[in-house]
Amino acid sequence: MSPFWLAHADPATAWAHQAWSELDSRTDRDKTVVVFPIHGFADHGLGLPLDIEETVGSAVLRAAVGALTGVAPVLVLPPLRLCLAPYPHTFFGVDPETALASLREIAAGVKAAGFARLVFFNTSPWNAELLSTAALDLRVRQNLYPYLIGSAGIGLGFHPAAETRREVQAVAVSLLGKAPAGASRPADVRDADFRPGHYAQPAPVVLDASLDGPALLTAAAERLAGLLAEIAVHRLSDQPIPAPKPVVPAAAVLWPACRPRTLAALTRDELEKIPGKDSALVIVTTGAIEQHGHHLPLGTDAMLGQIWLARALAKLPAGAPVYVAPPITYGKSEEHADFTGTLTLSATTLRQQLLALATQVKALGFRQLAILNTHGGNSAVVVATVREIQTGLGLRAGLLSGYYKPAQDAQETAFGFHAGEWETSLLLADAPELVHMDRAVCEYPARLEDPGLLRPEAAPAVFAWKTRDLSQSGVMGNATLATAEKGRRWLDEASTALARKIAGLLA
Hints:
Layout lengths: L19 H5 L8 E6 L2 E2 L9 H15 L7 E3 L13 E2 L4 H17 L4 E6 L5 H14 L3 E6 L14 H12 L11 E3 L7 E4 L11 H21 L34 H5 L8 E6 L13 H15 L7 E3 L22 H17 L4 E6 L5 H15 L2 E4 L10 H6 L5 H10 L11 E2 L10 E2 L5 E2 L4 H4 L6 E2 L5 H23 L1
Parallel strand pairs: 1-3, 1-5, 5-6, 9-10, 9-11, 11-12, 14-15
Antiparallel strand pairs: 2-4, 7-8, 13-16
Helix pairs in contact: 2-5, 2-6, 3-4, 3-9, 5-6, 8-12, 8-14, 9-10, 12-14
C-alpha cells in the first residue's frame, strides 16, 4: 500500500480502515477504547516542522496501542487537526465554537456506533481547556464516558513552561532523522505567573545530544498503554487492570510522497520564506469518514483524495509552486448516519473549517486556493463556501473536479455514485488489503429505464434521500465490476488530468 496520510496508525486498529459492517458486528463495543487524537500546528521553539505534535504523538500512540493487542480492545480515529491556535506561533486554527462543534459531532457518531469510552489524546497545550469543556458536555449531554490524556502526562509536554521540551525535541529528531533548524525567534512570554500567561513565542530549545530519543518514546508509549489499559476496565468493577505487552520500537513513519509540498511539514521560517506566493497554489482536500458498503473501509473518500492528489503532484515539475494545506478528513455525511461507523460534521462546522483554512492561507501570503473534494455530500457546502472565500477574502478559489470521467457503462455512469466500480477499483489498485471483494454487491438507487424523470441525482427533479432509502448494503453502484487493472488505469488517467488542471492554474 502506498502511503496516504489519514494518520500514522496501524490498519488493524484504525477506525477509518474498517468496513461499517465490521464495526457493527463487534461484540466488545462496550469495552472498546476509542482514541481521538488532537494535534495542533505550531512553532514550539524546537526548530522543527509545524506538524511535530502529530509526528511525536502518533508514533507514541501507535506503539502504545500495539502493546494492547490481545490485551484490551482499542480503535483509533483519524486525528482532529483543526483546533485552537491562539498565538502567532500557532497555525491552521479554528474558532472555539467550531472546535467544540467538531468534537461533539464526531463524538456523536462514535456513540451512534455503539461505543461509549472515548479518549481525547491531546498533544496541544492550547486545547487542554477546550477538551475539558467538551468532555464534560459529552458526559452530561450524550452520556458518553470521555477521558483526557495529555502528552505532558506521559512525559512529553509541548507547553513552553514544560520541563520535558528537550525530551520532546529528542524524540522528534529520532523520528525525523535530521537535526532541528536553528531557532530564529527569541522568546516572547509575558505574565507567565499570571494564569494562563501569554505565550506569543516559546523560548528556543537547543538539542541535548545526550538524550536517547527512541528510549524516551518507548517510555512514553508504556505510560500511555498503561493508562489506556486502565480506561478499558474503568466502571467494570470486577475486572482487574490488564497488563500491556512490552512496547515494540516505534514503526517508521511512512510519509506521503507529497510531504515536501505540505505546508505543515515546513518549519515556520521555511513557510514564511516560500517565494512567489502571489502566483502559487494551495490545495485543500475534503473527504469523509462514512460507510462504503461491506467491502470498503470507512475512510475511502479521505483516502482517495490523498491518493489522487499525491499522484497528480508527482506529475508536476519539481519546482512547480504548489502546496498542500492540512486536509479536512471528516465531512458532511449525515445521509449515511444510519450505518455504523459513519462520523459526520454539520454543514455549519464544515463551512467554518473551510473558511478558517482559507483565512490562514491568505494570512500566509497566498492568493490561490483549490479544493479537491472526494465526497459528494460535501459538494453543496464546499461550492457555497468557495463563493464566500472568493468574495469575502478576495482569493482566487475553486474546485479541482469534473476534469475526468472513467469509461463505464451508461448505468454505472449515471447511478454508480457510491462504493461502486470507480471507488472500489481505485482502492484495489492502491490499497488492496483494505478491499473485500468477496463482500462486493450491486445495488443501484435507480435505473436508466425507470419511468418518469424524478431521480435521486442529476435529473430535472431530484429528491432528498438518506442512504437507507436507496440501499441496504450502503452501495449505490456495481462494486462487482471493479478490478485492480481498471483502478491503475483510471488513477493514471485521472491524476494526469488533475496535474494538467493544476498546471493550468499556475499559468
